[in-house]
Amino acid sequence: xxxxxxxxxxxxxxxxxxxxxxxxxxxxxxxxxxxxxxxxxxxxxxxxxxxxxxxxxxxxxxxxxxxxxxxxxxxxxxxxxxxxxxxxxxxxxxxxxxxxxxxxxxxxxxxxxxxxxxxxxxxxxxxxxxxxxxxxxxxxxxxxxxxxxxxxxxxxxxxxxxxxxxxxxxxxxxxxxxxxxxxxxxxxxxxxxxxxxxxxxxxxxxxxxxxxxxxxxxxxxxxxxxxxxxxxxxxxxxxxxxxxxxxxxxxxxxxxxxxxxxxxxxxxxxxxxxxxxxxxxxxxxxxxxxxxxxxxxxxxxxxxxxxxxxxxxxxxxxxxxxxxxxxxxxxxxxxxxxxxxxxxxxxxxxxxxxxxxxxxxxxxxxxxxxxxxxxxxxxxxxxxxxxxxxxxxxxxxxxxxxxxxxxxxxxxxxxxxxxxxxxxxxxxxxxxxxxxxxxxxxxxxxxxxxxxxxxxxxxxxxxxxxxxxxxxxxxxxxxxxxxxxxxxxxxxxxxxxxxxxxxxxxxxxxxxxxxxxxxxxxxxxxxxxxxxxxxxxxxxxxxxxxxxxxxxxxxxxxxxxxxxxxxxxxxxxxxxxxxxxxxxxxxxxxxxxxxxxxxxxxxxxxxxxxxxxxxxxxxxxxxxxxxxxxxxxxxxxxxxxxxxxxxxxxxxxxxxxxxxxxxxxxxxxxxxxxxxxxxxxxxxxxxxxxxxxxxxxxxxxxxxxxxxxxxxxxxxxxxxxxxxxxxxxxxxxxxxxxxxxxxxxxxxxxxxxxxxxxxxxxxxxxxxxxxxxxxxxxxxxxxxxxxxxxxxxxxxxxxxxxxxxxxxxxxxxxxxxxxxxxxxxxxxxxxxxxxxxxxxxxxxxxxxxxxxxxxxxxxxxxxxxxxxxxxxxxxxxxxxxxxxxxxxxxxxxxxxxxxxxxxxxxxxxxxxxxxxxxxxxxxxxxxxxxxxxxxxxxxxxxxxxxxxxxxxxxxxxxxxxxxxxxxxxxxxxxxxxxxxxxxxxxxxxxxxxxxxxxxxxxxxxxxxxxxxxxxxxxxxxxxxxxxxxxxxxxxxxxxxxxxxxxxxxxxxxxxxxxxxxxxxxxxxxxxxxxxxxxxxxxxxxxxxxxxxxxxxxxxxxxxxxxxxxxxxxxxxxxxxxxxxxxxxxxxxxxxxxxxxxxxxxxxxxxxxxxxxxxxxxxxxxxxxxxxxxxxxxxxxxx
Length: 1182
Known about the structure:
- By secondary structure, the chain is an alpha/beta fold.
- It is built from 40 helices and 27 strands.
- Strands 11, 12, 13, 14, 15, 16 and 17 form a 7-stranded mixed beta sheet that branches. Strands 7-6-5-10-9-8 form a 6-stranded antiparallel beta sheet, sandwiched between helices.
- Helix 34 packs antiparallel against helix 35 and helix 38 (1135-1146) runs antiparallel to helix 39.
- The longest helix is centred in the N-terminal third of the chain and has 56 residues, at 7-62.
């Protein structure tokens, strides 16, 4: 053990050493100083003695006075430092006196003796003094002893003083510090000890710092050191259960933090335990997964690349022989060879991937291949994934891999691929079905649009033209919607292309009024427009989609409103700014449809805008509807950069709002209206309408145009206001008078005004929701005069034009869209007069319709029934253009076009597709085969003429633009008289469909009789076959044809039959009953048609006496029918030509009813049906 000394000992020893050294140094200095002084004094004394002897002895020596010499020498011998005096003189005579003290001679001093005044005498004598330092040394020793005693005494005093001072001033405070530290170091005591203040400044500061340190230590530790240490030891040992008592006053102390750490560690341990449990569970699941996925491990070492070390599981998966314990297999002759046997191509790909992985060109060996198991010869699919371990030189050290049996996955993939292929085939079949349905639907649509177009080119009265224009516009609108419904590619992609075209908002609103007003009138509901005057007249956008939204919302309002009014409003709103500045190119319109119907609760409003959802489950039962309309409308609104919302209250009504963003076209309509406002400002108008909304709309619009407006809600008040205004000298210039008002209507009000002798009647414009013709007729019958009729709902433009005309200013009257379209059609058709056109069309009705349209435009038309015939005619005759149907028997339009384009002579011949298929893929296919353009069915006359005009123009100058009246054959008037009273047929309704063409109507009646006479047997046969789709189609076709010819009862019966046929499940008794009703109505129609005589066109009527066949004719026809039956049996296309010959010869015979279905079956390539139909015809000829 190292010996230690107290600080007191060390300090005193140090002080003693310092004092001793200091005093010793001083004593040494003093010693040598005294020694030097005494040496100097001794030297001086010796020199004095020498000097004295040199003075006193020469006389005595010269005289040889020994006594005197002795006396002189002895006198000097008394000096304490003289040991001996030796006097030499004469001839070496000596006188030597020596002291008996026995001190050594320390100093010898010799001097020559000279006689005073005779210094020339040399060697007279000399005196030698021998001196000692004994006295000096004795004195020095005495001084040294005294110094030592002084040092000792001083040290003793210093030690005592320092001991006392250190003890009282240093050691005692240090002792307290030591005791306090010992108390703290004891560990088990709390840190409550503190040092008292000290008289010493330094130790007082030390006490303060010590106390501060202990305070901080107490705060930091939060308890005794042993407690902290013990807590740390317990936590280190993993004991997290023992509590840690931390002082609550020190929440940030070590003990408190350790308590928190203990709590966190407990949580961590719990989490780790959870993780461990989860990991154990995952490992268990992973093990199960490996078992379930049938995966096995294997290894290939870098130094043995041809040896594969397999696990037992991997060997079992591969069907290899089990080879414990090393499980070695030859990679080349066994593993790779099995892969090559199973699938060489996949084996080659896998081997290349393996080599790339070994060389480091790919990150891992990842391959899927087939493997032939040697154990049972079964070929399995394996997926192998391996990781390569490499050394510092990137050479393979080892490859660790896993192989999984994925046979079941691959088999599933193969099944999925087959299913996908089947689905794609089904999808293509669905597309083909849609294309065919498009073709079938467009055929009657073609007739509707085409025939109404023809009718509009004839001389019609206003009411007829109004009706036919509405039919034409509705058909075109329906066609536009049908185009998007049948465009399967757009539907599948979730896209709906929006049109961007110039349109007039008034025409959209007018079309809406045409469709809604009759129904609103029937229900006694006021249908109004609230259009603001600042809306541009002409816009750019999609008018059909905008009209579709308005029609849906207005139709819903009409459906759910039983009384009151429906108001369709539109106003201009500020569009959202783009980049801080509003885009002046666009305009945002806010539309709303307000009704006074049943309204909706907030809960019901939440269900709106969802497909197939009504506001209430009872709604569809009571009012009908699918719930799709609002969803479609909302989508269309969003496609036009707008939004849709609803406000509704139960029992009060609903208001549907939506906004759309459209492009501006021009401001000319604003300028036109502003130009007239100076005239309007001097005009006073009285608005008379009992409906508040209608009255407010008329008032606001008239005021916006600058007129001075008064308004009232009844006729009697109007009479009073008119009289009052005239009496004041400010009479009204115009009265806008509602026709149908309670108590006193518009006619009665006019009568009252006319009965007042003092009233000068102003111009009266009758405002009505009914027909303007009816209003005029009612006024005429009542004997009152009206200036004009303004039909509700009133738009800003219609009111403006009416006001302009009424105030006497020449109005700028814009042509209606229909009129402009008709004139455009005439211009286009006039350019085509004289061209030679080949019409290729297999459907007789479409042939007749297109032929009628084209020939009426002066086009020279030739007809071909199929593609083969068209090719032959093009090769034989020169044509300017070919209109080619795409779907035809014998050869379709695509094949015919490809065949024509192969001949260099016809590469520039314009070929225009004319088909009911309107899918995008169909248009692409049309262009791909070499056709120039595409016209869809039903035919749009203007579009057809414009498209043809793009590719060909007649050589001769066009004739003046005049109407092209439909030819009226001689005898048509007689035929019309014959049609007046046909049971089951409304001839007037039929003639409206046929544009008033009696000859054409008679021809359609006879075609109907020929095509539908066998409807009952056909329908029954289809019913027995269980083909529900064809069953409903038969009824649908009959319904459409019956509607076209005006057989309204048959139309209604066929409609009910169609509904029952499409029902799932079908009600067999009800279906039989409806079939009997339909057949009965059909028989009545056929009987009426059979009563008709010869047609105006010279064709024989259906009721004409059928021709009889001679025996020779019968024999010849039996031979032809036998040949036909053979061709039909072998599905030979030559049956078409032979069948046409047979049909032509049998059409005028008693077998005509059986021939028409045969012709249809052959045209549709339905040879099985044709074979069935041949049997009764052959039997009838036997």
